[in-house]
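Protein in question kept underneath.
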Amino acid sequence: PPPPSTGRPPAPPARKPRRKRRWGRILLVCLLAFGGSAVAAGVWVESSLTRIAALSNYPGRPAQGAGSTWLLIGSDSREGLTPEQQADLTTGSDLEFAGAARTDTIMVVHIPGLGSGTPATMVSIPRDSYLPIPDYGSDKVNTAFSIGGPALLVQTVEQATGLRIDHYAEMGFAGFANLVDAVGGVTMCPTEPVSDPLAGIELPAGCQEFDGRTALGFVRSRATPRADLDRMAHQRQFISALVHRAASPEVLLNPLRWYPMARAATDTVTVDDGDHVWDLARLAWTLRGDINTVTVPIGELTENGSGSIVVWNSDAAQRLFSALNSDSPIPQDVLDAANA
């Protein structure tokens, strides 16, 4: 017989519980995959860097100071450039610039130690700075690189500044242009137009995107009112902008950008044989922050048997480098002299 009626409608059939989307697990898998890719990329870059013996111990070498110090070099090396590329980049040919490579850019970057409370500082050294070159008398600092390579240049800079150089990095013309193109170009905002046929550029004032060719011309040009002083300021500005671009999500989260960037860096950046990818990462992180950017305080621009030379303001320069060596604030009058 049928079951007795209770007077209530039958209960609806039980619904199967919805399958919960495990977003947490999906996110974790994505993070692990990204982290694994980052580690693999770091290992690849570490094993692919070109290394040389740029740093060495010698009698009278400055003692280790506070923080750490880099010497960054942009050489005029045309290695790896075909004649067609040399013409396109307006670098001049190997026949025009035969002989040892020279330094187009010399910068000291001091990174203070943790907890010092002082900002990092990027110091441009004019390539025509007239300095004592160990075992070769006094000459332009550029000459040290030409006759003795990175090791003699490092020793010359150490003796002139009193700073011990802890890290070294160098890049030539081809590497610089390739790196800029690899990150998809860099936005710059020159306040004045720059017209320089020798550097192959015709730039209006205002914000615009530089490709590798344009960027190379911009950092090489001296066709401005202050010539080499403006050029060094442009170099510091561009390096900061390039690092910001390279560290942006548009590059780091896009394999079509970060892989070519890493490949360009490993193909063209030369470091000391004691440097590692994590040292470069710390340098890049430092340069993307707020830092002091200055030129060595200059006493006079003159001429002698070496040609046109730059003579440092010895007192202001000594106080600048002493402050860096001890992670102390740079005196305001020294900053004023360095930015004059």
